[in-house]
Write a structure and sequence with these properties.
With 275 residues, the protein is of the alpha/beta class. The chain is 32% helix and 25% strand. It has one domain (4-274): Spore Coat Polysaccharide Biosynthesis Protein SpsA, Chain A, CATH 3.90.550.10. The chain has helices at 35-45, 60-65, 70-76, 86-94, 108-114, 116-119, 140-151, 214-219, 231-239, 259-274, and strands at residues 4-8, 29-30, 33-34, 50-55, 96-101, 124-127, 131-134, 154-160, 170-176, 183-191, 202-210, 244-248, 252-255.
């Protein structure tokens, strides 16, 4: 059983400056909820209750959000605003939150390795909060856990993207397995390839399930694209042994790391509340 979910949340969020100068990008709200709360809710729906969060300087607001604010609770107690805290209270009561800092920004692979002390020797999920996912059925992470239960290896969520956008993503190549049309055994992974070099247009998004041997691989992974330790490079080592499955998820993803995606997500959830 997978019980732990890792949230890399130490990045600077430079695409949202100046808003992210003093506010973590993970705390930017889509309507009335910060991005990271959507991610935690998705993890809880998938049956996970231990949240491991990788933070950095200037990220204290994340810890404060997943804690009780006695002054605020006292101020709104008995008023019509009290129910507005029901969702976050529920998360706080259901989950355990632990934190560690990524002292240097050396890439997603390094951030995940930083979380080893919080995860230990067990399989775990990873959610990138600025990839906001929604589904009319099971959440994306819940879908992935079902895939993990079948294959017992690392799982990455993928979606088809325009070929001209491959330089923004990790891209996979693979073979369909078990007669499915959405599950691939990965044969190759390339980090942010030029469109002419991309093996396919199937891009990895911010949802992973990783087996604990990934930590040993990351320890010996040399810096790759951009001088960073890339999780794609580490996963490729697992893929060479046939131990990575790519799953084309059912649902919709918003790239809330970009202004366009953030606005699109805001409009989508606003219209959903009115629908």
């Amino acid at each position: 059983m997978i019980k732990k979910c890792l949230f890399p949340a130490a990045g600077y969020g430079t695409r949202f400056l100046p808003a992210t100068k003093a506010t973590p990008k993970e705390m930017l709200p889509v309507l009335t909820k910060p991005l990271i709360q959507y991610g935690v809710e998705e993890a809880v729906e998938a049956g996970l209750n231990t949240m491991a969060i990788i933070t950095g300087r200037g990220k204290r607001a994340i810890e404060d959000h997943f804690d009780i604010s006695y002054e605020l609770e006292h101020q709104i107690k008995g008023t019509s605003k009290e129910p507005l805290l029901n969702e976050i209270r529920s998360l706080i009561s259901q989950c355990t939150f632990s934190y560690t800092r990524q002292v240097e920004m050396k890439g997603l692979g390094h951030a995940i390795l930083t979380g080893e002390t919080l995860i230990g020797n067990e399989p775990f999920a990873v959610i990138l909060a600025d990839d906001l996912c929604t589904s009319t059925e099971d959440s994306v992470l819940k879908q992935m856990i079902k895939v993990y239960e079948k294959y017992q290896c690392s799982i990455v969520a993928i979606e088809e993207i325009p070929m001209e956008d491959t330089s923004k993503y990790g891209v996979i190549a693979g073979n369909l397995v078990d007669g499915t049309d959405d599950t691939y055994r990965v044969t190759d992974m390339v980090e942010k390839p030029d469109p002419k070099d991309a093996p396919t247009n199937m891009a990895i998004i911010g949802r992973y399930i990783l087996t604990p041997d990934i930590f040993d691989i990351l320890r010996t992974t040399k810096p790759g694209k951009g001088g960073e330790i890339q999780i794609t490079d580490a996963l490729l080592e697992q893929a060479k042994q046939g131990k990575v499955i790519a799953y084309r998820f059912k649902g919709k993803r918003f790239d809330c790391g970009s202004v366009d995606g953030f606005v699109e997500a805001t409009n989508y959830f606003y219209n959903k509340t009115k629908g």
